[in-house]
Give the backbone structure.
Amino acid sequence: MGDTDLGQFGDVHERARENGARDGTPILWSARHGADPWINLFFRADEIVSKQRTTWRRYAYALVVWLNFLEQRGRLWFEASTRDYTDFKHWRMADSRNCGRVEGTSFDTDRAGLKRFYAWASSEYEVFNPIPSQSVQSGGHGSGRDPSRPAGAPRRQVKWLLRKAFEQWRDVGLRGYGFDGLRPESWHGFNEDRNTAFVEGLWGTGLRLEEWASLLDVELPAAHVDGRYPKAWLAKACAKGRRYGRNYRIPRAVVKAVAGYMDLLEGSRAEAIERAQREGRYERLPGLVIVTGHNPRRRALRVRTPHGGSATVSLDVLEPAERHRLFREAQGGLEPLAVWLSVNGMPHQAHSWENTFAAANSRVAEAWARSRWPGFEDLREEERRRRAAQCPLWARPHMMRHSYALGWYSILSAVWEQRLRGFTEAEKRAFREQFGDIWYQLATMLGHRNPQTTRDWYLAPFTALEVDYLMALIDGDQREAVDILLGRIAADNELVLSPVEVEQDLSPDDEGDDA
């Protein structure tokens, strides 16, 4: 829809406030049917408004794909049948005519969004719910499974990276190096310091993507604070679920990396701010808030009100979108409090980091393929893509959190064994009941309220490791010991990605054969 079409709506912001929309509320619009108010009201329902913006985006995307599928069938969303859903499931996952087929875990996200939408719509408008929801019983014991879920979809697909594999992915994907350790002179890493500091922070803190992406400069530990793991606070409004804030630790190396990115003379952040100031970008931002002070003990900001007064706002109530509108007046003009900025100087959206990871994965895959097959550049584009897709090294944002959990599980296992050495089994049980155990400590570090979540979804394949073996390894250098431990698992477990050893394939280039 072009800009000229927006005039018919009058003051869009005023209309949004009147109908309950918030910053980031999705609006679905069809070239054939226009905007359907029934669908768009879903994103204003109480049970949806309370969810995070990332959830809104996932639900909106699932609905768009579903509505496009129905449109090709000449059906409207309230006319959909169970057969439509079954055919949609087949088309998304298995239909050879669909070049964009997805795996079960991805379709599971679609299913969750559609199920939530039709549960709301059937109650609100009394329309038929085409998404099967009655559990299929197994063995008559009541342990059922939702039939709308794809059979091959586990509840969560968890993968881990060894530290050395992470460093290899980081150096090749974000810093421009090849697998030979050399960096070409043509490399221009405009955001290299930013991207490197960001992924090191995900790895070192165990925070979720949006949690780490919402960081403000006033929330960083001071550079002079002692200790290898300075303490920081995750605001309630930025934590998953928005129910409570918590302490977390930032490794000293990460603090230094972020400080390098924010350096006024050499960091790329200052360059981005100066660029935005010259172009007047900040002044044109609607709804910006001027911050005049910060009270670290109360974790609060002093802000200027629209009428020229002042007010105190707790950092705990500021959601990620609100944080992107926080600015201070500096000598060169306005500057954002958000740590992570785009090239244009504007606060970097959390979901945009997915593009950074995708670009890094593509760079790693191409570098790996060039190292493995001499003459790779001379192959047809389709064949180059096919070979690059075989690269065994890649990363996603949440893998950083999983890897953080696994590394600390290894360390805590060794610490607990040392602490309980000489205790009888009865005494060990009593000690754990009184003071908690590894899972309680690890859940605290990850921000899980229930340690069973940590055990079941993050580290289930590793819980059977013998602590004696852990102890034998932890006695040496911590990083090497943990990597040796995980490497043992990686040898027999495709869920753990190890560093890549590239061996050239000098066989004749037959593009029809697998490498």
Remarks:
- Confidence is low (pLDDT under 50) at residues 135-145, 151-155, 467-478, 511-515.
- The longest helix spans residues 397-419.
- The first strand starts at residue 29 and ends at 30.
- The CA atoms of residues 251 and 473 lie 22 Å apart.
